[in-house]
Amino acid sequence: DIQMTQSPSSLSVSVGDRVTITCRASQKINSYLNWYQQKPGKAPKLLIYAASSLQSGVPSRFSGSGSTTDFTLTISSLQPEDFATYYCEQSYTTPWTFGQGTKVEIK
Amino acid sequence: QVQLQESGPGLVKPSETLSLTCIVSGASISNYYWSWIRQSPGKGLEWIGYIYYSGSSIYNPSLKSRVTMSVDTSKNQFSLKLTSVTAADTAVYYCARVGCTSAVCYFSYWGQGTLVTASS
């Protein structure tokens, strides 16, 4: 299985901060990388697919970059509604696998 | 608007079979892949498998011996069966629609999730 490792596991930030979350794959996955946001008690929500494509309806402050094994999710200016847990996921090969998550908390 | 809703027992006895159904509304089940994902505190998010509307499927090898997925196009729904459950199968189970481009597949729509507890 391809292992997805996110860092950091958690971070404390303030509204307006720029946030960067990284995801590393244990082997090459080209751009088969997606990002999801999950709030407590809710299902994950797709933010970014194919490493850098913004899902329809997602604010432009979210962006994704990277390829091969190293990827980044950036929130340019954190808003109150962005406090959540973020997951990366690879669909390069089955079994599709997720990172362990990065919890973004209020400082 | 595409909506998915999981249904099924919230409590399953160890060694018995977990059965869940996902009802799809707002879109036809045809021409898409549909997936099950679960989330437990110990293992995070785990992809269980996917099924095409035609019935072809791929399962996670870690669960393959115990998983069966099926589709009922007449009812616009798909289902999951997991046999011989143990406490390790306790999780929130999500159904999701799989979207694919030429570049990638992803989970575009999710159900709200249903907690299934394996306990006597």
How would you characterize the overall build of this protein?
Chain A is mainly β. Helix content of chain A is 0%, strand content 50%. Chain A is built from no helices and eleven strands. In chain A, the strands form two sheets. In chain A, strands 2, 4, 5, 6, 9, 10 and 11 form a seven-stranded mixed beta sheet that branches. A four-stranded antiparallel beta sheet of chain A has the order 1-3-8-7, with no helix packed on it. The radius of gyration of chain A is 13 Å and the shape is globular. Chain B is mainly β and 120 residues long. Chain B has strands at 3-7, 11-12, 18-25, 33-40, 44-52, 57-59, 67-72, 77-82, 91-100, 105-110, 114-118. In chain B, strands 2, 4, 5, 6, 9, 10 and 11 form a seven-stranded mixed beta sheet that branches. In chain B, strands 1-3-8-7 form a four-stranded antiparallel beta sheet, with no helix packed on it. In chain B, a hairpin with a 4-residue loop joins strand 9 and strand 10. Chain B is globular. The model of chain B has no long low-confidence stretch (mean pLDDT 96). Chain A binds chain B through residues 31-34, 36, 42-46, 49-51, 53, 55, 87, 89, 91, 94-98, 100-101, and chain B through 44-47, 58, 60-62, 94, 96, 99, 101, 103-108, 110-113.
